[in-house]
Amino acid sequence: MDRIPILKFGNALLVTIQVDMHDRLATTLEEDLTSKIVELSAKGVLIDISALEIVDSFIGRMLDNIAAVSRILDADTVVVGMRPAVAITLVELGLSLTGVKTALNVERGMALIQARLKTSDSEDDDEE
Amino acid sequence: MAGRNVITVAELVGSNEQIILPQWVDLQKKAGMLQTGRISENELVSQSREFLHLLRDGLATGGTDISNPAYNPARQMLGNLSRSRALQGFSPSETATFIFSLKHPLFATLNRNTALSPTEAAELTWAVTLLLDELGLFTLEVFQKSREEVIVRQQHEIAELSTPVVKLWDGIVALPLIGTLDSQRTQVVMENLLQAIVDTEAEIAIIDITGVPTVDTLTAQHLLKTVAAARLMGADCIISGIRPQIAQTMVHLGVELNVLSKATLADALSVALERTGRAVTKLKKTAAVANQNKMPAEKGQ
Fold first, then answer.
1. What predicted TM-score, i.e. pTM, was given to this entire model?
2. I want to staple B62 with a disulfide (CB 3.0 to 4.6 A). Which of A120, A124, B68, B169 is the partner?
């Protein structure tokens, strides 16, 4: 598999990482995701890493980058389902991903994005 | 020559068991082996007898080299013995006495034997001394190792006991920390907390440091790491129970915890409840009933 599928879920994009990430896969995902956000004008990105067992500093940086890029493109990034071991590793590496929102599972992550969409919708309504 | 003589020693040990054994046990008793009441006299005698037999077998085929396979049973028995002594709480010297007190009766037996010339007797005494010394050292080594195992096990138990994660409410867990936070404990604390967050699907984790005696820069860093890891798992952290002196020390040290912190666990819990959309209110009716119940009791006094 040389590409990670990006699914459209309403106004949000859903990415489920189910294979071991290597650097090229990470770069491809970053590029694909950026172009998808623009293409579908997505408001949220949900990255599910519950199947990810091994992380390195590169993957950590990638998550941070994706969050930064999507923030510029007006989309929220939520990373969900991080395993305890992965969280510890990232913290030990000094990557606490301050720019990324996190949630325990996909359900809660989706609720976070929906909440944000609702508020922005009502703002839009106000403008109208 | 030495080989033949060592076999002589083995024979002597075998034929003089009735003399050596009581003397040896006597010496051990004099050294206070039975005073503490940790082992009975019967046990001591049977252990001594068993070792004497194994030593004889070793001497008969293995010479005076304790690394010889012929000594394996003897070493094994000694190992078990000193391990159990270590667990029973014997001191190192008490444990070593088991071997060293054998010297006197053994040498006396050698000297009584007229078949040996004085030179031969002296040589044999020397060889046997070396052998017993090595066995004694071996005993102490096993003893030491067993004690270390006990200490390591206790450390593990303390680590386990001191880091419980308590579920306070649906989606709220608390981590009451007690004792100094070093790197190793932080690791255990972090793992336990993160696992609890997964298990209970917690949204908020309260870290209570009332029981942490001092907070230095390192401890603060450990705390922050734990908070960061919990955030990565999608849980918010609140730190509670920072004592006045600790707060002062932290400010003096320039330590900054960029986390929500509350004075007490109760305050932290109310914030947590609020964030999860709950509130604790007084039940007026129940309070009234409780007061009514209390009134007669007070009158009775």
1. 0.62
2. B68
